[in-house]
Design goal:
- The protein has 157 residues and is mostly helical.
- The protein contains six helices and no strands.
- It is elongated and about 65 Å long.
- The model has no long low-confidence stretch (mean pLDDT 93).
Length: 157
């Protein structure tokens, strides 16, 4: 079995590789589609892994503090963080495109098209690449799961 942290990081890595393939494919439709498939498979894995890891976070919190906050952690971990992440992503890409002179519903200048490309490719690549760091840092806590599970089973009896 592969550690969740490595699966999570690998998902981000595949998303980065797929984005690079899209970026370097230019007008090559086959290359773009292959990159799109790789990027979406990677981001699909990366974006779904936190849901698989929520239970471990709840257990860690109960082990550390004695409080089982399943509802709170699920709400904050899934609904709130996903909403905030979507908002930040939209704001970042919007600001990048705006800085390059993008105007909605108008013919775009060469500079605005550059901003669109930067926003679609480089912003995505950088964010996914940076997200690999906390994914790998999670392994420290993942290594403690057996001990946490054993300790909690004793206290729950």
């Amino acid at each position: 079995m592969y550690p969740k942290s490595k699966i999570w990081a690998a998902g981000f890595a595949f998303a980065v590789i797929g984005q690079f393939i899209i970026m370097f494919s230019g007008l090559n439709v086959v290359g773009t589609v292959i990159g799109w498939i790789i990027a979406n498979l990677g981001s699909g894995v990366a974006c779904s892994m936190p849901f698989a890891m929520l239970g471990s976070s709840v257990d860690y919190g109960e082990w550390k503090n004695g409080i089982n906050a399943t509802g709170l952690l699920t709400t904050v971990g899934s609904a709130f963080c996903m909403s905030m992440g979507s908002g930040f992503a939209g704001a970042i890409t919007g600001h990048v495109m705006s800085a390059f002179g993008y105007v909605a519903n108008h013919s775009q200048t060469t500079q605005a098209l550059t901003g669109i490309k930067l926003s679609f490719n480089w912003v995505t690549i950088v964010i996914y690449a940076v997200a690999i760091i906390p994914a790998l840092m999670y392994q420290k806590y993942e290594n403690m799961e057996d001990q946490i599970t054993a300790d909690l089973s004793k206290t729950r009896q």
